[in-house]
Amino acid sequence: MEKNTHKLVILVGSVREGRFGPVVSSWVAEQAIAHGGFEAEVVDLAVVDLPLALPAAPPKFAGADYPRPAGMAGLTEALEGADAFLIVTPEYNHSYPASLKAAIDWHFTQWTARPVAFVSYGGAAGGRHAVLHLENVLTELHAVTIRDGLAFPNYFTAWTDGRPDDPQAAGYAKTMLDQLSWWADALKHARAAEPYPA
Questions:
Q1: How crowded is the C-beta side of 92, counted as CA atoms within 13 Å?
Q2: Any signal peptide, and if so, which residues (predicted)?
Q3: DSSP calls for 105-156
């Protein structure tokens, strides 16, 4: 049976100088395309206007009138059109970057009843602390977080020529993408059948 194709937004979470995120996101996008269930778009937060100061009214209540910066329009459009998300994050001091928190906080309904998978990288923990914090935040926004993600410990010695050295990495990616595709399909049909009671 032919797979349904879902719009997948891959967020590059780090904006730090010399970051490794674009290498990871490029490989992840390659895996998503090879999977066959997704139309993948990589959105790099390093090129998005992400001020930390927020308007007084939260986006949950302001809706379409929420005053986002003009430089955020592309990000907002990508999030609104997505059936699923995949966040690529490093770990900074046992958590995720401020850039990701800003991107999440400037939005609300865009995450609702949509699945989110995670690919993390870092030192010994491989970014898992960052993912645990993201799971908590995105659950609050009524997103559905995917259990099976990818974590790359000690990424600085575990990648060669833009690819992970672990021969099982592509298999782990397929499992994650299979689950993400299943949830994207299920939630898309559920949203179409009845509005989510947020």
A1: 14
A2: none
A3: HT-SGGGTT-EEEEEEEESTTTTHHHHHHHHHHHHHTT-EE-S--EEEETHH
Q: What is the tally of helices (H) and strands (E) in the chain?
A: 7, 8
What's the longest Cα–Cα distance across the chain?
A: 49
Tell me how far the alpha carbon of residue 139 is from its chain's centroid. 13
Question: CB within 8 A of 16, min separation 6: which ones?
Answer: 90, 97
Q: First CA to last CA across the chain, in angstroms?
A: 34
Contact indicator for 62, 153 with CB cutoff of 8 Å: no
Domain regions of the chain by residue span: 10-193
Q: Report how far residue 184's alpha carbon sits from residue 83's, in angstroms, rounded to the nearest whole number.
A: 6
Q: Which architecture characterizes domain 10-193 according to CATH? A: 3-Layer(aba) Sandwich (3.40)
Say what the pTM is: 0.96
- Mapping DSSP onto H, E and C, the string for 28-51 reads HHHHHHHHCCEEEEEEEHHHCCCC
| Residue 19 near residue 155, CB atoms below 8 Å | no
Q: How confident is the model over 41-99, as pLDDT tens digits?
A: 999 999 999 999 999 999 988 888 899 999 999 999 999 999 999 999 999 999 999 99
